[in-house]
Amino acid sequence: MDMHELTRELQVKNDSKIVLFVADGLGGLPLKPGKLTELETAHTPHLDELARVGVSGGLIPVKPGITPGSGPGHLGLFGYDPLQYRIGRGALEATGIGFALGPDDVAIRANFCTLDAHGNITDRRAGRISSEESAPLAVRLRQVKIPGIEIFSEPVKEHRFVVVFRGPGLGDQVHDTDPQATGVPPLAPKAAQPGSQRTAEVAAEFIRQARELLAGEARANGLTLRGFSNRPNLPSYEEVYGLRAAAIAVYPMYKGLARLVGMDIVGDAKTLGEQLDVLAQHWNAYDFFFIHFKYTDSTGEDGNFAAKVKRIEEVDAAIPAIRTLGPTVLMVTGDHSTPSLLKSHSWHPVPLVLASPDCRTDRCQKFGENEAIAGGLGQFESKYLMPLALANAGRLGKFGA
Amino acid sequence: MDMHELTRELQVKNDSKIVLFVADGLGGLPLKPGKLTELETAHTPHLDELARVGVSGGLIPVKPGITPGSGPGHLGLFGYDPLQYRIGRGALEATGIGFALGPDDVAIRANFCTLDAHGNITDRRAGRISSEESAPLAVRLRQVKIPGIEIFSEPVKEHRFVVVFRGPGLGDQVHDTDPQATGVPPLAPKAAQPGSQRTAEVAAEFIRQARELLAGEARANGLTLRGFSNRPNLPSYEEVYGLRAAAIAVYPMYKGLARLVGMDIVGDAKTLGEQLDVLAQHWNAYDFFFIHFKYTDSTGEDGNFAAKVKRIEEVDAAIPAIRTLGPTVLMVTGDHSTPSLLKSHSWHPVPLVLASPDCRTDRCQKFGENEAIAGGLGQFESKYLMPLALANAGRLGKFGA
């Protein structure tokens, strides 16, 4: 069952404001079993106050045991079933650098590689060439000209870059050209379906011209293409929820994910403080605000328990400024857990607190993993959070008579 | 969504060991509302210790309110959606006596019955003939010869036996021959689909020869055939999880169920003590071990609260020997509840404890129904237990980027 069938049918408009504050990778683990997690360790008087007046729960990002990447993690929070809406690798890479994919685009993850005199690959990653060296090469490939096709070539990092072909009818069912081996040439682009034949031809011509442009390079004289993908076809927030939605994020990936569901990207904040300013500035123009905070995840990935605790305290300190604006529904959670113990994303449920006038407050006194999972919302899949938010905002009518 | 699509895609191999210890029918009920269940009454210091270091939850075998048989109960624990994978009655009966069904087999539940001189049924169960009397008759029917078909006729209990036809292209869509009434003859085997026509013909010939072989019997001079079914098509543990799996069970039914998902049946233990020896002997050869203990269910079925308590204490006493081996993930649960109050399987959630280094310990201090359902894993369908086990064993990669 697609929840959007229900929210489309039942949506109601009103003056309520909904804020979803995502502390990326918020959930954690204690360093020793039975001790406190990062969130439980942090001094979080404002989040604890939210827990007292609101209702808590534990979010399962995808399904029990499944650890999500940022894409599925956020799609779930946005109310899009991450198992139904799969974002192709090329589209995610383009999204990750903030490239605004259009409906006529096919996005491709590209690698520079090293070819010998016979055209065989000697290094699939071009000696892990530095970003400084590779970025101008990606820009140089914008000189490729193919009639009827607009071409974008965008630097990413080290040997990686993104290529986007824009033109009508470009399917994305094209096999990778990376042979996953050295001593052999890159594969020719090959369509897996007739509707992608034109894309394969465009890719072949792109590669031909690109190799001429790279001919003089010592290491990055070749390229491989992987993960051909069209923009995922996600219905917009406006359509499925009736919400005018704004995203206030610092990093391109999260702006990109928000753009995919039709949110406006507002402001150009570089810090959480600036994000709060942007929120206040745009308060009247939108119904829904997605605020993204990255550093709870990155400190977790670094394995730095103490630093993650500090970052959580930054999140906590931001709460009063948000509450001052008077949101009808304020939710604080994460897209997944990133325990510093594991130095990676994990499958553990993510603590959630939701505060609204009609939320049915539970007995939770603090915001933390152990309190939250025993909270009034129980444990549930992230994709149900948006319907809950709409209900708490009075934006969902009755189902059936 | 079939979780196996995810586990196939995300599985990672490592040196971890996973143990699933199933105390059949573990969940119970207090004899009076508000009192303690069998598990809560039992003295279980080792399970309580697991609850302290691990994380607890409540397993819903199929869906809320649905009481499962052993088949669906175990399929859920093994991670196979019991609503998707239905085991036919004949296949389950064959599995229950440990018959290793092959891909070319059709298994049938057979009953001896009593026929009068006109061929009409006078007793559908042949006077509930004793197992001692009926077993040689089932064996006698192995004399039936049908060209191109291998025939197995296996005693079960009292008037019941199992017939298996083995041969290429034998469909299982054949109607039961039991008319569910006396005073009428058994029905002729009739195919419900063209692909099962040959099976119906083989069954008719089997019945014809069988009646000749049984002609002199006073009570068991006829037979009916029910529940024609092919082996269910279950993908293997190796394929869906990347696990080399071993089953250590005493009773044929549980060996049979494990065999259906591709587990090796190891050892020939008759007691829990011997099962633990078998576990230690095979520790290095497998990644996953399923240990089955029957008597928590059978004492529940007997309505013997005190005996079930004692059997639970046997389960408890086995925990140290398992933990000594150093499993990465140790899970103790049941396939369903069997409250001695009800003398039957029930729908109540089954207590679960899972211990692993990364499990996110909750605040449960004891192992019991009331503690477990408020545990860190919440309540969830049994089919998600295996993905959780794999995650805790570090055997699942990230979903999406």
Give a written overview of the molecule.
2 copies of one chain form a homodimer. In chain A, α5 (89-96) packs across α9 (252-260) and α11 packs antiparallel against α12. Helices cover 32% and strands 19% of the residues of chain A. Chain A has helices spanning 3-10, 38-41, 45-53, 70-77, 89-96, 131-140, 197-213, 237-241, 252-260, 272-281, 295-301, 305-324, 369-373, 385-392; strands spanning 18-23, 55-60, 105-115, 121-123, 150-157, 160-166, 222-230, 245-248, 264-265, 288-293, 329-333, 350-355, 379-381. The longest helix of chain A is centred in the C-terminal third of the chain and has 20 residues, at 305-324. Chain A is α/β, with parallel strands linked by helices. Chain A has an 8-stranded mixed beta sheet with strand order 9-8-10-1-11-12-2-13, with helices on both faces. In chain A, strands 3, 4, 5, 6 and 7 form a 5-stranded antiparallel beta sheet that branches. Chain A has 14 helices and 13 strands. Chain A folds into 2 domains: 3-87 and 234-392, 3-Layer(aba) Sandwich (Alkaline Phosphatase, subunit A); 91-230, no CATH class. Chain A is globular and about 70 Å long. In chain A, β8 (245-248), α9 and β9 form a beta-alpha-beta unit. Chains A and B meet through α4, α5 and α13 of A and α1 and α14 of B.
